[in-house]
Prior knowledge:
The protein is an alpha+beta fold. The chain has two domains: 3-59, no CATH class; 77-159, CATH 2.40.50.100. The protein is 18% helix and 35% strand.
Amino acid sequence: MDLKDIQNLIKFVSKSGASEVKLEMEDIKITIKTGTEKTETTIVQQGPQAIPQMQGALQAMPASPSGDSLIADSTSPVAENKYIEITSPIIGTFYRRPSPDKPVFVEVGDMVSPNTIVCMVEAMKLFNEIESEVSGKIVKILVEDGTPVEYGQPIFLVDPS
């Protein structure tokens, strides 16, 4: 496994919403942990290539387009203080619309109030409507349509003012 494969794996795991992925092959072990605050990668190699070279190359890797870096905060203090997060109450697949031929539940700039349906999360072939628990304006959609979400993962940012 070369550095490019590892970089692609890190990007894939960051986008998938998984909290931890472990990959073990005959000469290398990789653990990638993600969360709302940071993404960490641990590599243990048991082959001819030295571990410091591999880790140094990974730490020098540029940030992904989504703004995540290997070990960096993905939330800013300003965003945490000003906006309220709507989080996923269950593990499943996030959908912005009730069906492919219907319009999305909410867009950036839409006003929501408690009990406004903002999305659906599919879990075990059951589609669960997710309602806002706060009033305000949607300022950011944090999850791509059709991607997996975890329990407690932020999916929308709402400006309560």
